[in-house]
Design brief:
Order of helices and strands: HEEEEEEEEEE
Oligomer: single chain
Structural class: mainly beta
Length: 156
């Protein structure tokens, strides 16, 4: 692929991608960087394969594959599959699959989900996380239960 074509695809893709981030760093208008071993952009989609990553500010989504749907130049949906990580300065969420919907600022992760925040850990089968409000809801894991370990903050 020529450098001019690659630069054009990068520019168009950055303009079309949504904000991705947590409640503290979620800001529309921030640039979004992306990278992958392979990328394809059409008028209705963006496909990233192999070490796919979208980064905005201090937040990042990383997976084996990322597929994004576009409508009129606006991103309507992002689906990440294979070793998915959603990372913010405060937490890391891991799952097998994630679907991000910009219209409601929601990312849904499924498949052996692990949410870590400092030393605190919660595990389950699914997690619905609102990137704007920071609200998270975990669904039961392989044994039908949500499990976690919480460490109280010391009063030093």
């Amino acid at each position: 692929m020529s450098r001019t074509l690659a630069a054009a695809i990068l520019g168009l893709s950055l303009a079309a991608l949504p904000t991705i981030g947590d409640a503290q760093s979620f800001q529309s208008g921030q640039p979004i960087m992306w990278g992958a071993d392979e990328g394809v952009r059409t008028p209705t989609s963006l496909s990233l394969r192999g070490r796919a990553e979208l980064t905005q500010g201090d937040s990042r989504i990383r997976a084996d594959r990322v597929e994004a749907a576009l409508s009129g130049g606006d991103l309507t949906r992002v689906e990440a599959t294979g070793s998915v990580y959603f990372v913010t300065p405060e937490q890391t969420i891991r799952g097998d699959r994630a679907v991000y919907t910009p219209a409601n600022d929601t990312i849904v992760l499924t498949g052996d989900v692990i949410l870590t925040q400092g030393e605190n850990v919660i595990t389950g089968a699914s997690l619905t996380y609102n990137t704007r409000t920071g609200t998270a809801q975990m669904g039961g894991g392989s044994n039908g239960r949500v499990q976690g370990v919480f460490y109280p903050q010391s009063g030093d």
